[in-house]
Amino acid sequence: MRRRSDKLKKLNSRVSNEISEALDSEPEESSIWLWIEADTESDDTGGWCTEIGGLGKTAPYIQIWLDRFSGTERERLYVGFASRPAKHVRQLIEVAPRRWQPIRVVTADRIVHGGHPHMKEPLRPEEYGKTIEEHHSSGWHFYGIYDPMDSLDRDDPKATPGFVNLAIAFLTDIARTQQSVSPMHDVDEDAFLNEGRQVVRQHLVRERDKKAAEKRKRKDKYKCAVCKMRFEERYGKIGRRFAEAHHIRPISTLKRGEKPQMKDLITVCSNCHRMLHRMDGKPEDVARLAAMVEERRELSK
Question: Which of the listed residues 78, 146, 156, 235 has the most CB atoms within 10 Å of its CB?
């Protein structure tokens, strides 16, 4: 049993990595944010779950599951969005294309909680590969797709070849639709008029810059380029995937219509970020501040 569980965990992790890598190649304008560290964890359904990212830094989260929740005797892969409270997922469904409208809604009273939780009425064959909406008594709300094929051989579990492609199509379609109705640059410019048009432009650039900033932080593994601190190492789980991004090329120098690039950013901790903004605003500030930090470190020994 333990051996089988390990194989299922590896399968979930492998499929999650494939989906994550494919999503990472999406244009920077995509609203999908991916975590650099995605752990595969066991759950009360007797299977495994990997959270790979979300639409923005918070909910709805993107999760890949491998369990028997759909009511079958064999584990099935699942990809979808999850949120608590439910409103985040409900908003996605309200604007989803017809192709991705839920074919079935599973409410809390239609879920069996004894042993491993599962649907009272198993999914019918025609419902696999279609979107399912789930309301759980815990307050979590799910919206996603179960693998249409059962190809999890008991000795050598493998993913259905088309599942990854189906997952990517679903996730990217929903992300694009969500972004089109809630564009990142949707902001009330009048609120900034007293501070001048340049402030308005800087605010819009910052909004469009979020994806590049997150990619920078992921590439740097959330380590400060100045003091080398990682929040997770200092504060534990609460500091996971936390850092800030600093523009080594000031926003004010960007031409109209020009977007900040990942190369224009560095990853920093909150303290070093504030100190950089007290300096001259030049690219060499980073090296100067790093030297100051190291000097203070040596003096304290």
Answer: 78
